[in-house]
Amino acid sequence: MILPPPCPEAGFEAFLKELPEDCLEMAYEFKAFARGRKVRTPAELLRLAMLYCGLDAVLREAAGDFALLRERISDTAVRKRLLACGPWLKALLRRMMPALAAPAVAFRLLAVDSTALTGIAPDGVAFRVHLVLDLAGLALHEAHATGVEGGENLDRHPFVAGDVVLADRGYNHPASILGLAGRQIRVVVRLNPVAMPLYARQDGESVFDPAQAKLDLAGHLRGVEGGQASLAVWLRGGGRAGQGWIHCLRLPPEAAEAARRRCRQNAQRKGRTPGADTLYLAGWVLVFTTVPPGELCAGTVLDVYRARWQIEICH
User: Fold this and answer.
1) Which of 65, 107, 242, 307 stands the most exposed, by the fewest C-beta atoms within 10 Å?
2) In this structure, are residues 125 and 152 in contact, taking their beta carbons and an 8 Å threshold?
3) What is the pTM of this model?
């Protein structure tokens, strides 16, 4: 038996019930909605916004879907209406998020990412867009575009002392991370052990010994019985060394096996065979940070990075 597709109207009505009771009145308060024309009510405006922001439709798709249920509208008109929705939607998000009695931290928490835009180019990639989000303020902090040669690098962003920057594995550049640390800018980055020259660091050790061997992270974690571990390390790059910490979280068995399967598939596409250590480490979430545990403990660092997974920019 073939079931009919779910009614989009019913889905939107269910979505509305999860929002604050005065969410539609807030559209007037924040001047997102003034009077009805093609978009006749705040609810219709919210539905249009969710087509674009929630379902990730492009402007023309959002206009077409809206026209099927309401009235014909151009993508230019959709864009103008959505531009007015920013303060309203931001206030709505703040209302729905758990309130804090006081700021949890005294620094800016900035998430960095970039994405490729396709176009007329030999490999199909014409531009790269680099974005920085202020997570605490729920605001776009910085945006700029480069050519296809503009890779992921933290050096391109004007951070200031005290910032904590969240980034994925594409930003595992030791020299950049150490350069930021020298300016009192800390990072939390998903660790790619191959790209980061790491050495074990003893408690109280303040000077790096270049004669010591590199860290055997897989060997260290094989001796860990629990589901979480932390390790003080030295990071080397650009002719210098600096202090850091690795926080490790063991994945559940099913998630670990799925991660190893993806690891094998990625290696096969490159004509390689992953080693035993690589497959073992795929069963862990590995996060490197230059934030001392006294400022952000291991659990908080891991929670913050997992929150970043939910806001993969432009994906």
Assistant:
1) 307
2) no
3) 0.71
